[in-house]
From TrEMBL:
<keyword id="KW-1133">Transmembrane helix</keyword>
<keyword id="KW-0472">Membrane</keyword>
<dbReference type="Pfam" id="PF02698">
    <property type="entry name" value="DUF218"/>
</dbReference>
<dbReference type="InterPro" id="IPR003848">
    <property type="entry name" value="DUF218"/>
</dbReference>
<feature type="transmembrane region" description="Helical">
    <location>
        <begin position="34"/>
        <end position="55"/>
    </location>
</feature>
<dbReference type="GO" id="GO:0005886">
    <property type="term" value="C:plasma membrane"/>
</dbReference>
<dbReference type="GO" id="GO:0043164">
    <property type="term" value="P:Gram-negative-bacterium-type cell wall biogenesis"/>
</dbReference>
<dbReference type="InterPro" id="IPR014729">
    <property type="entry name" value="Rossmann-like_a/b/a_fold"/>
</dbReference>
<feature type="domain" description="DUF218">
    <location>
        <begin position="81"/>
        <end position="244"/>
    </location>
</feature>
<keyword id="KW-0812">Transmembrane</keyword>
<dbReference type="GO" id="GO:0000270">
    <property type="term" value="P:peptidoglycan metabolic process"/>
</dbReference>
<protein>
    <recommendedName>
        <fullName>DUF218 domain-containing protein</fullName>
    </recommendedName>
</protein>
<feature type="transmembrane region" description="Helical">
    <location>
        <begin position="6"/>
        <end position="27"/>
    </location>
</feature>
<dbReference type="InterPro" id="IPR051599">
    <property type="entry name" value="Cell_Envelope_Assoc"/>
</dbReference>
Length: 253
């Protein structure tokens, strides 16, 4: 297991909030005031993380790229040379399928990329390496779904990457080798700022094609102020992107 994965899960919610609650219990006699502070931060953070309204507000701060209008799809061939779709993990050994399957986030990206490819005629590259080191790669699983379920061929499979930065590095190597420098990039809306930054730093011109927006009206009762489990997961994704936007310029100059 990569050490970065361990620290990421430890520091980001809910791991970081659980650490605060454990600290509150451990410090309750040694430092009551500090323990109370940890308790308030842990419980308060957990409550905020569970609110759909926080998801909506947070996503609007991160989702900077507008959606591509459908009227623009057909003209993408005049503006770009390929479509790159980024992997997003996989579900292991689903008995219904008898094999690993793309995560629902990756399926959303693949479906959108297939629509763009049909409308524009541009070739597809899927980027995504081994999930925790076990084959098949995210790219290969995605290509199989495109071929079998959407009747869409994939020209390139980038199967080495483990991070968004590596998605960009290895995809750029493959595309530059074929004289391609302009791409349509398909990924989740909250993930797009970090992805665009990475691909542009690796010499590719990017037309953003974000999908899966979370910064839209949440449609929940009471305006999204009632806690729900899905919001915890969504807010965790948003915090991961915030951390990435801060860390990437520091580590990948």
């Amino acid at each position: 297991m990569p050490i970065r994965y361990f620290f990421k899960q430890l520091l980001l919610p809910p791991g970081g909030l659980l650490v605060l609650l454990l600290l509150a219990w451990w410090l309750r006699r040694r430092a009551p005031r500090l323990a109370a502070c940890c308790l308030v931060l842990g419980l308060g953070g957990s409550w905020l993380m569970s609110l759909p309204v926080v998801v909506e507000w947070g996503a609007r701060q991160i989702e900077r790229e507008p959606a591509l209008a459908e009227a623009q799809w057909g003209g993408l061939a005049q503006r770009a040379q390929a479509i790159v779709v980024l992997g997003a993990g996989r579900e292991m050994a689903d008995p219904a399928w008898g094999a690993d399957q793309p995560s629902h986030i990756e399926l959303e990206r693949l479906r959108y990329a297939a629509r763009l490819a049909r409308a524009s005629g541009l070739p597809l590259l899927i980027s995504g390496g081994l999930h925790y080191g076990k084959p098949p790669s995210e790219a290969r699983i995605g290509a199989e779904v495109l071929a079998r379920d959407m009747n869409m061929a994939t020209r390139w499979l980038e199967e080495r990457s483990r991070t968004t930065w590596e998605n960009a590095v290895y995809s750029a190597e493959m595309l530059h080798a074929e004289g391609i420098g302009r791409v349509v990039l398909v990924t989740s809306a909250a993930h797009m700022p970090r992805s665009r930054w990475s691909f542009e730093r690796n010499g590719l011109q990017v037309i953003a094609a974000p999908v899966g927006f979370m910064g839209v009206a949440n449609g929940r009762p009471l305006g999204g102020w009632m806690p729900e489990s899905k919001a915890i997961w969504q807010n965790g994704m948003l915090l991961n992107e915030v951390a990435g936007l801060i860390a990437y310029p520091l580590f990948y100059r």
